Amino acid sequence: QVQVVESGGGLVQPGGSLLLSCVTSGNIDNIYAINWYRQAPGSQRVLVAHVAGDGKTNYADSVKGRFTISRDNDKSVTYLKMSSLTPNDTAVYYCNAVVRNIWGRLEDYWGQGTHVTVSS
Predict the structure, then answer these.
(1) What is the pLDDT of residue 101?
(2) Which residue of 13, 34, 62, 67 is surrounded by the most CB atoms within 10 Å?
(3) Which residues of 39-58 are buried (b: 16+ CB within 10 A; e: fewer)?
(4) In the beta sheet, which residues pair with residue 77?
(5) 38 membership: H or E segment, kind and range
(6) Exposed, middle or buried: residue 20 (CB in 10 Å: 0-12, 13-18, 19+)?
(7) Per-residue DSSP letter, 55
(8) Residue 90, burial from CB neighbour count under 10 angstroms (0-12, 13-18, 19+)
(9) Contact at 8 Å (CB) between 57 and 69?
């Protein structure tokens, strides 16, 4: 079992920055990857950024060059640094921990989400 808690959302003006945090606890030694998703009103949840266990990262085209995903050395906290924000970035941001269980299968654990609103 892994617990996932996001924080750091809020209201920011266009062009501003925010730092989201995802704290994972429990069986974090078996975390396979951490993803950040977002869901805008009336839209589906989409993948924004990904960091694998080996540290390799991937980003959605819409956020490349503006968002950075990173993890603490002890891998218990994953960050999403968001810069040059636009109203299109307004969404609920969710952290997803992908964990390999004792049978070798991957399981998903989700946080409750944190709201990001970009508006003047």
Answers:
(1) 87
(2) 34
(3) eeeeeebeebbbbeeeeeee
(4) 23
(5) strand 31-39
(6) buried
(7) S
(8) middle
(9) yes
Side-by-side strand order, sheet with 77-82: 2-7, 18-26, 77-82, 67-71
What is the Cα–Cα distance from 28 to 84, expressed in whole angstroms? Answer: 32
Residue at token pair 């969404």: 91
> Could you tell me which residues come within 8 angstroms of residue 87 by beta carbon, excluding any fewer than 6 positions away?
14, 118, 119
How far apart CA 9 and CA 7 sit, in angstroms, is 6
Q: What are the φ and ψ backbone dihedral angles of 87, each rounded to 5 degrees? A: -55, -25
Q: Which region, left, alpha or beta, applies to residue 49 given φ > 0 means left and ψ of -120 to 50 means alpha? A: beta
The number of beta carbons lying within 10 Å of the beta carbon of residue 88 is: 10
pLDDT averages per 10-residue partition of the chain, 120 residues? 95 98 89 95 96 94 98 87 98 96 92 97
